[in-house]
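I would love for you to help me understand the pair of lines that follows before we discuss the fold together.
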Amino acid sequence: MKRTAIFLAMLSLAAGAEAGGRIEEAEFSLTPPPMAEAEFVQPYTRSWLTLTYKDGRRAAYPLEYRLLFRSGDTVGGVAGQVVDRTGKPILRSAPDKSGNVAQGPFAAWSPDANSLLAVPGAKPRREGANPLFLVTHFEYATEAPNADSAKSPVDLYGKLPMAMNLTALDQDKRTGRLEAAKLSNVDMAGVNGLWIPCAGTLTPWNTHLGGEEYEPDAQAFEAKPLEAMNLYRGTPGKTASEGGARPYDYGHPVEVKVVAGGGTQVAKHYAMGRLAFELADVLPDGRTAYIGDDGRDVGLFLFVADRRNHLSAGTLYAARWNQTDTSNGGAAKLEWLRLGHATDPDIRRKVAGGIRFSDIFETSPQPADGFRPVYVYTGSGGETQLEYLRLKPGMEQAAAFLETRRYAAYLGATTEFTKMEGQTHDPKGKKLYTALSYIEAGMLEGKNGGRPRDDIRLAGDSKDLICGAVYQSDLQGGVKDGEGRPIHSDWVAVAMKALVTGAKKPAGQTAYGQYDKCDTDRVANPDNLKYSPALGTLFIGEDSGNHLNNFLWAYRVKDGRLTRIASAPAGAEWTGLQVVESLNGFAYLMSNVQHPGAAKDLEKYPEEVKVKLRAKVDQRGAVGYLGVLPALK
């Protein structure tokens, strides 16, 4: 029987099962790694989800990857189209270091975060369908033709402003199938444009919350123009002091509210600090958020809002890792250092007033009286290295919220983490999950180099550790910060340990994964994370340079069972994860395929991969979902 026919049969069974009670256990079957050429170049799944209910009944559902649209598709508007502040397509990129300029128009091939949501009061667009909306932001454009046709294509990372789309969807009332009806760009003019948005989440109050990753280094861009965002503003060649793009406008969480008629309201939350925001995961109290800070030599951050469901004011903290175990990815007690309190208007006024890095810190090329050593990722355009900084008088708040990582290190927080990616949480078990995509450099014992602190000292084979890990943290209330002041949250992480780890390729694993450096049957370089309370399952999407094909995994928390459930095309990563447990009687695992076949991601592979196999990959990003499933709660 075909999978579609089985699915329809199981769907009718599920409707009765859902009405009859709760899920006792969820189990996914295994998707094998790619073996045939078609599997190397397409997203696919062979997995089934089997649900056992409290009354003993069982039902099985086939997963299927369903495409909504690809980058560049026209669905009313063009998916992923890069535009300026007036909404017009940008036709030329900022120049790269060699002066190469790409020719547009541009459609970004890196769709990242998704937020599928229903909006009260939205009107149906056709009979037999429910009106839904999908917010999708695009992380970057991979490459485009050189304006000089005699030259090679141009790598576009960080060379363009980025795009966020709002798509009106029709949900079939009978089958749950989703169909894109109309797509448009979310207007970012009110927040001065969008810079490299990475992962995101749906907040408890039904808004999309994304993060601007790899913030521009304000020290580096004090004297030179930030041309990618000048393209958006229409101020080419101008520095911030000359009226060009201001680096401090970028590196913040971006919140988008969708209204019933399909309009949007956009805000950047300056009060949450300025970092390489992977995302800010908001916990059930609507006040506590954990921030993934991507890069090497970064930190772990906690934001506690003043009011429920409002992220515009609050207190920001940075973690100190007090190590308790060096093995198997390590473990630690967490201590939280208070960085400061702010409101969005507080910080926005400083940025609008033209504050510069040199207004906040003095620098010295060598040790000097009153200067503290700091070793952190400084942002795009900068250089990670040992710096000596001295805070200028009265600049504590500006440092905390505009130079958040530097200030955290200045105060003694741990900034040795590498590639801190996704965050998600288990609301019932009060656990936080954090992806450290690569464990290397300052995280390893004996590899601290010139870093002034050595909090993280992990032991083990570096070829295992470089495959990354997912960490679990216990959450509780009644916690005090490093100075003994109460942290006003019941969701404070107090202990952190490795839960799911990768490992190097075993010598005997030769039947598949011939190009993989990490074990094909284990997670490698975890990135996107989302947890499903109904299934008791942590979903893990890879962004690995150590698996040719990145996988999507389901990890059953109660017994540690890890199952591969989908495979992406060569050079792609799984992004846009969102577990939608119940929406008009159906459930979805939103998931995108980002930058399939990207030259940069395949450049280290042999010729038969980076040229011949790549030529068979559809290199447009894909926005879609695994499903349809019956409602899970």
Q: What stands out?
A: The mean pLDDT is 95. The radius of gyration is 23 Å. The CA atoms of residues 129 and 323 lie 53 Å apart. The first strand starts at residue 23 and ends at 28.
